[in-house]
Amino acid sequence: xxDLKYIGHSAFExxxxxxxxxxxxxxxxxxxxxxxxxxxxxxLLTHAHSDHLGEALEIAKEKDIEITAIFELANxxxxxxxxxxxxxxxxxxNYSWGRALFFPAFHSSSLPDGKYGGCAASILLDIDGVRIYxxxxxxxxxxxxxxxxxxxxxxxxxxxxxxxxxxxxxxAVATKWLGVKTVIPMHYGTFPEIEADLExxxxxxxxxxxxxxxxxxxxxx
Length: 221
Known about the structure:
Layout: E1 2-8, E2 11-16, E3 19-23, E4 40-44, H1 50-53, H2 56-63, E5 66-70, H3 71-79, E6 83-87, E7 92-95, E8 98-104, E9 121-127, E10 130-134, H4 143-151, E11 155-159, H5 168-178, E12 182-186, H6 198-204, E13 211-212
Parallel strand pairs: 3-4, 4-5, 5-6, 10-11, 11-12, 12-13
Antiparallel strand pairs: 1-2, 2-3, 7-8, 8-9, 9-10
């Protein structure tokens, strides 16, 4: 069984049996999430911006675990004293909880010191036969059609807040292109400039039995 928690913004914990993986752990925005007691074995980063890098370094150091990220970002994490696994795009990476595959996302990526953070990424996770696509920060891209054709994800975590990423309308098209049956919206409402109409998004994707599952970070347990 795969247990998925929405921590807030683009941060998720995905747990399988006695292991958990964190994606884009900007966890400081949710004081109800206790990462200290979670069985986290890996951290995966889509890109270097502070609202995605979040508390990755602190968590990785305390738990003595690796951060997987695109080459430039992984090297930065290593320079900051954390264990890291540098990767590129397009090949499966094996873990104790399953495997992951990094794809391109169409977005910028800069390190906290302003230097280039490598290309932005989206991530497909394959955990016990469940395929979850975390789109990262991206615009609508035809790469999503390829992901459907080759990998057939069942769940998509899609940004809908607009301005820096897809908005509601474009995320609805992404849902169709990916062919998923469940969409969990993310990257909205954290800041005033990325407010989104959740009801409209749910209406737009109400086709082919596609469900919009809205997770409330304040109800995390």
